[in-house]
Amino acid sequence: MVSTIPITPVKLTAKDFKSDQEVRWCPGCGDYAILAAVQGFMPELGIPRENIVFVSGIGCSSRFPYYMNTYGMHSIHGRAPAIATGLSVSRPDLSVWVVTGDGDALSIGGNHLIHALRRNVNLKILLFNNRIYGLTKGQYSPTSELGKITKSTPAGSADSPFNPLSLALGAEATFVARTIDSDRKHLQSVLRAAAEHEGSAFVEIYQNCNIFNDGAFELIKDSTTREDHLIRLEQGQPITFGAQQQFSVTHPAGSFGLKVQEGGEALVHDATVDDPAYAFALSRLSGSDLGTTPIGVFRNVQRPSYDELITKQLVDAKAQADGTPEQMLDGLLNKADTWTIL
Amino acid sequence: MSAGAKRVEQLDRVVIRFAGDSGDGMQLTGDRFTSETAQLGNDISTLPNFPAEIRAPAGTLPGVSSFQVHFADYDILTPGDAPNVLVAMNPAALKANVADLPSGADIIVNTDEFTKRNLAKVGYAVSPLEDGSLADFAVHPVALTSMTVGALAELGVAKKDGERAKNMFALGLLSWMYSRPFESTLRFLETKFAKRPDLVAANKAAFQAGWNFGETTESFTVRYEVKPARMKPGTYRNITGNQALALGLVAASVRSKLPLFLGAYPITPASDILHELSKHKKFGITTVQAEDEIAAIGAAVGASYGGALGVTTTSGPGVALKGETISLAIALELPLVIVDVQRAGPSTGMPTKTEQADLNMALFGRHGEAPLAVIAPKSPSDCFHAAIEAARIALKYRTPVILLSDNYVANGSEPWLLPSADELPDISVEFTTEPNGEDGRFLPYLRDPETLARPWAIPGTAGLEHRIGGLEKADKTGDISYDPANHEFMVRTRAQRIEAIEVPDIEVEDADESARVLVLGWGSTYGPIGAACRALRQRGLPIAQAHLRHLAPLPANLGEVLAAYDKVVIPEMNLGQLAHVIRAKFLVDAVPFNQVSGLPFTAATLENMLEDVVKNG
Ligand SMILES: Cc1ncc(C[n+]2csc(CCOP(=O)(O)OP(=O)(O)O)c2C)c(N)n1
Ligand code: SF4
Ligand SMILES: [Mg+2]
After folding, report:
1. Structural domains in chain B, sorted by start
2. Which stretches of chain A score pLDDT less than 70?
3. B:304-323 residues touching chain A, CB 8 A cutoff
4. How far apart are CA B368 and CA A325, in angstroms?
5. Domains along chain A?
C-alpha cells in the first residue's frame, strides 16, 4: 500500500513542532520527555506540519496536542480513538496520532481502543501508562497493580490490572510496541517503526508520574537493576538479557507460553509472525512487578487498513458516477415507481 | 384480466388494513397496494405496524403485523383513524384489529387459517366467524391459502412456495375490488425474483387468481373506484420518512459540495437511514457502523473536523449516550447533524412505537449551558427538506443540529412531489484558507460578525495549524482560558449565536381569520392536527393552526402569533414538553393535550378535544 500522506521537501526541525503554548505538566513529569522525543522525531517523517493531527482524550497526558504545532484536538475522556477514526477514514492525506492515558484508553475508552485496533484504522496510538489517574489527583487506574493503595483505595485496590499489550494483541492489533519515557533513543526508534506501519500502531509508553506514582518503573530504569529485568526485543536477534546476557527467553516444548531461564536456547525475535499468539506470549512475560519486561516491537504484521478498504469502496463506487452530482441526485430521487400529474 | 360485469361504486376515500402473521408478507402487500394506488393518482398516507420481535411464534397476537393505507380523491393528511376494510390472514390478525373497525366495515378473512388450533392460540373458544360476534360487519370468508395453492398446482410449484404466495392472492383480490392498475406489481415481481423465474410465475399466477376470484365470486358484488386526487402537477413517488431523510442527507451533501460522513450504531427505528445511505457511496458518502453510539458521533465529529458533513443517526437511547460528545461539538463549534428518530421511552420502552418525548432532551439534555439548533419534520416527505435545512444550519452556523423525527413519520409514507436537484438550496460554505489575525496569525475563534460562526479551517491547510478542545477557550485565540469574564462572555456568545440563527416565521392557517383558538403543534402531529382542524372548519367551527418546524431557535414572530388568540392548545405525544417551553418563554396560558400510548393521535381524538375548546373555551 502506497502512503496517501504527502511529503514535504522542506527540512523541518524539532522547533517547528513546538507550539506557543506554555507547557503545564508538573516539573519532572515523564510527559516532558515524551513530548521532547516526539518533537525531535517528527521532522524525520517529512510530512508537512499541516498534514499531521494529534487527537487526545482527557488526562494529563491528553494535554499533549496543545504543545504540538500541528493540527490538534483535545477531545473528551476516552473517545479519541473514535474521533480519530472518523478523521482518518475521511482524510487519507493526514497522519493521525492519538495520545491517551491508561485511564483514558483502558477504562472509559476501552471499547473504542479495541475496536480501532481490530479495524486496523490507520492511527498511531501512544498510550502514556503511568499506572495512575494523574489529572484527577491520584486514584488507581486499570493498570495499577493489585492492592494499590490510593486515595480511592485506602485498603488497597481489589481489581487485577490489564496488561495493555495483551489487550491490544487480543484485539489483533497489527503493530504493538512498548517503550519508556526516559529512553529517548528507544522511544524514537519505536515511533519510527510505528510511523512506518500502515494501519493501527499501538505503543505503550511507560511514563513516570512523579507526583502520584513516583518510581513506578524504577526497576527497569535504574542502571543497577535494569539489566536484570529489562528485555530489549530486536528483530532477528536472540532474546537474551542480563548484565552478561545470561538470561534467555525460551519456548519449552509442550508449553503454550514462553519462559525466562538462565542459559538455554534463546528464541530469535520475529515481530512479523502472523499468529498473534507469539507476541501475546511475549506480552505475558511482564506482570505488575516488572520482573521481566520486554520493550520494543512485539508485533508488526500487514493487514489492509480500515481506511484503505473504505477508500477502495468509495473509489470503486465513484467510478460508477454517471453525471454531475445534481444529475445523479435527480436520478436517485426518481429511482422508484413514479407517476406524473399533468 | 378484464373488468367484470359487477356494479361499480364511486368512493371519495378508503382506509384498508392488511393484517397477518409477521411471516405473511403484509408489509410487502401493503407496499404494493400503495404503489398501485399511487400510479392511479390518489392521495395516499400509509402506516405500518410491526411487532418488535423478528419472528414471534406463528399465529400469536404478538406476531401480528399490519399495514394501513388511506387513499382518497382529495388531499389527505393521515393514514386514517379506522379501516373500512380489514384483510385478516389468520385469527390473530382478526382479533388484534377488529376493535378498530367501525360497524359496517368489510372483513376479508382467510378461512384456511381458522383452524381449532389457531383459534385456540389466541383464545377463541368458538370461531368468531360462526358465533355471530361479527354481525356488525360485512364478512367475506375466502379460502385464501387453498385457493392459492390450487391455482398454482399446474405450475408445479412446491406447496410451501404456493402457500407463501397467498399474500399476492389477497393483493390481486383487493386490486380488483378497488380497480387498481397492477402493471407496477407485475414488474416488481419480475425484479424481486429475477433469479427465480418459478417464483415470478407463481406470484403472478397467485395475483391473477385473486383478481379473477373477485370477478367471479358472488361474495363480492361491488367494485369500487376512487378517482385521482387533484394534486399539483409534477412527478411523484411514494416515500417513507426514513427514506426521505436519507435522501435529504444525500441532497445536503450534493448541495454543500461536501462529502457526507455518517457514523451510526443500529437502533430501531433509525437503522433504515444507515441502510439507505450505505448504498450511495457513488456520491462520496462514507458510512461507518461504529461500536456504539458514542463512537458513532465521535467519528462524525472527527470527520467534520476534517471538513466533511458529519452526521450521526439514532433514536432516544442513542442520543442519551451521545450527550457528552454533542457538548464537545458545541464547544468546538463544528457542523454536525444528529438525527433522533424518536420512539416510546423511557429506557428501551416500546422501540417500534412512536412518541415525541425527546424534545426536552434535545433542547436541554446536556451538561453546562449547551445550546444548539433543533428542528422537526412534519410528515414523511418533509423529512427530505428538514434534513437539508438541518445541514444548512449546521454548516452555516458551525453548530450541532438535532433533527427530531419519530417512528410515525419515519415509517409512514405519502406521495412526494419530486424536487429537481438544481432547485434545492445551495448550502455550500467556504473553508478558511488564510490567516485572519495580525502578523499572519490564525485566530480559530474570531467570529463572523453576522452569523457569529467561527472559521472552519481544516487540517491540511498550511499556516493555519491550531488546536481546539473541550476546555474553555479564550475569545478569538481559542487558547485555554479560565478567565471568569471570558467564560461569561463565551457562554453568552454560544447562546446568542443559536438565538441569532435565521429561521422562517411561523405561518398560521386561519381560514377566515375569525378563530379565537389556536392549535400549535410540532413534528409528526401535523397530519392529525391538520385533519382535525379541517373537519372542524367544515362544520363551521373556526380554528387556527400553526406548526413549528424550528424548535430552537423559535421563529421570531411566535410570541406575536400566540398573543393574537384567546386560547392556545398544544397537542403532543408526550406529557407537555413544548407546552412547558411556550408557557415559560411567552407567559401564555397554553393548554397541553397529551397522549403517550405509543400511537399517533387520531384525527377524531383531536377533533373532539378541539371542538370542546372552541365551544366551551
Ligand atoms: C466523562 C468524564 N469522566 C471523568 C472525568 C475525570 N477524569 C479526567 S482525566 C481522568 C483520568 C485520567 O487518567 P489517565 O487517563 O491515566 O491520564 P493521566 O492523567 O494519568 O495522564 C478522569 C477520571 C472526565 N474528564 N470526564
Ligand atoms: S500529575 Fe503526574 S502525570 Fe500529571 S502532570 Fe503531574 S506528574 Fe505528570
Ligand atoms: Mg494515567
Report:
1. 7-226 (3.40.920.10), 237-423 (3.40.50.970), 430-502 (no CATH), 508-616 (3.40.50.920)
2. 1-2
3. 304-308, 310
4. 40
5. 14-216+304-309 (3.40.50.970)
